[in-house]
């Protein structure tokens, strides 16, 4: 790949353009917003001048509702040898392109499973896709050339290619992405008019649950409007679970011992189902998540604290597999949870204690 045209200079498009440009690909940028193009170009993502000849790859990174129209326009104008899109929904654009009677041999729908709460070119980073799944949805019409271009793009972005059917993809993202976002928003919405005394009690758990609720609503309206059926199906199943859980909790209020017992069993069942589902979430080392233990360290909100902890752990020969920060409300301090292999806990605890760190056991 020597040249590319990135249409849509938001978070995903600009991040991909930054990667391509850094690898020596001549990248041309286009967007309906000239200011977004200028911003992306100023970041080093490419040039705002249009290509003078067909490029190797056209990457369409626009909202789902505009994908088919943008692709059709680019294909009819012969702007590239191969065409990809990165929309979070795949079935709708494919059906619309087929309805237009276009030759789909040069097209491949894709979806990088990565993102941030922020959007726009200023939120773009070249390592956005590293280690993340990048779904490819080839069809019987897909040509070898565009498939190779897609695999090259995924490799340059250091992502992990995953091949799926377009409709299966849409059902999958409804479960693992679109529904969780709505659930996060529903939980966060309960806080909007809550009493201040209640909000001040927020801890790390509700921060984790509501983190993605900070995303741009207009972007998510576009996404959900393109995949409403599968998302509604999953939410309907969640609604059934919620109804059963509400009934179980009400039973716990009963004076009848049998009802309380059934209520407790119902609550326990949903919690255990949650345990069973959570362990299936892929971990750092692949599909099978590994079990780590946590060493919690009290730190002050000062520059260099995290660097010191990691350096002390490194000198002890301990690899930190993951890290979480639990902020103390209203205080300039918090706990850093260092996730390590179980066998490394005694070594790390001893080493950090010797360096004067305050540990929480």
From TrEMBL:
TM ranges: none
Which Enzyme Commission numbers does its entry carry?
A: 1.3.1.12
Task: Write down the chemical reaction(s) this protein catalyses.
Answer: prephenate + NAD(+) = 3-(4-hydroxyphenyl)pyruvate + CO2 + NADH
The family database entries (InterPro entries) matched by this protein are listed as:
6-PGluconate_DH-like_C_sf, ACT_dom, NAD(P)-bd_dom_sf, PDH_C, PDH_N, Preph/Arog_dehydrog, Prephen_DH
KW NAD (keyword) present: yes
Q: Which residues form the Prephenate/arogenate dehydrogenase domain?
A: 2-282
Which Gene3D superfamilies would you find in this protein's record? 6-phosphogluconate dehydrogenase C-terminal like domain, NAD(P)-binding Rossmann-like Domain
Q: Which Pfam families match?
A: PDH_C, PDH_N
Keyword tRNA-binding in the entry? The reply is: no
The segment(s) forming the ACT domain are 294-361
Please give the pathway this protein is involved in.
Answer: Amino-acid biosynthesis; L-tyrosine biosynthesis; (4-hydroxyphenyl)pyruvate from prephenate (NAD(+) route): step 1/1
> What's the family?
Belongs to the prephenate/arogenate dehydrogenase family.
> Which protein is depicted?
Prephenate dehydrogenase
């Amino acid at each position: 790949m020597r040249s590319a045209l990135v249409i849509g200079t938001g978070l995903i498009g600009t991040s991909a353009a930054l990667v391509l440009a850094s690898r020596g690909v001549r990248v041309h940028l286009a967007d309906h917003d000239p200011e977004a193009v200028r911003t992306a170009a100023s970041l080093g993502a490419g040039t705002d001048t249009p290509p003078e000849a067909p490029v190797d790859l056209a990457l369409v990174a626009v909202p789902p509702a505009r994908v088919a129209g943008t692709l059709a326009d680019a294909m009819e104008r012969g702007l590239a040898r191969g065409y990809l899109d990165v929309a979070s929904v795949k079935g709708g654009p494919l059906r619309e392109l087929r309805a237009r009677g276009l030759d789909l041999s040069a097209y491949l729908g894709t979806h990088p499973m990565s993102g941030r709460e922020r959007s726009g070119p200023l939120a773009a980073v070249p390592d956005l896709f590293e280690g993340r799944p990048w779904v490819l949805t080839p069809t019987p019409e897909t040509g070898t050339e565009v498939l190779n271009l897609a695999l090259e793009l995924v490799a340059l972005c250091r992502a992990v290619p995953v091949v799926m059917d377009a409709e299966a993809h849409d059902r999958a993202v409804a479960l693992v992405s679109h529904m969780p976002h709505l659930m996060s928003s529903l939980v966060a919405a309960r806080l909007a008019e809550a009493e201040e005394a209640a909000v001040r009690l927020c801890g790390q758990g509700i921060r984790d649950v509501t983190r993605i609720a900070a995303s741009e609503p207009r972007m998510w309206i576009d996404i959900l409007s393109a995949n409403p059926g599968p998302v509604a199906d999953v939410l309907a199943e969640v609604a059934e679970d919620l109804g059963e859980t509400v009934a179980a909790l009400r039973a716990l209020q009963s004076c009848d011992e049998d009802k309380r017992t059934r209520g407790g069993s119902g609550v326990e069942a949903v919690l255990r189902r949650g345990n069973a589902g959570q362990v299936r979430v892929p971990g750092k080392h692949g599909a099978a998540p590994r079990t780590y233990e946590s060493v919690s360290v009290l730190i002050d909100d000062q520059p260099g604290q995290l660097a010191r902890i990691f350096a002390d752990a490194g000198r002890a020969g301990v690899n930190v597999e993951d890290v979480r920060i639990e902020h103390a409300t209203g205080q300039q301090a918090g706990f850093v949870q260092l996730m390590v292999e179980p066998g490394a806990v005694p070594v790390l605890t001893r080493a950090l204690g010797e360096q004067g760190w305050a540990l929480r056991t």
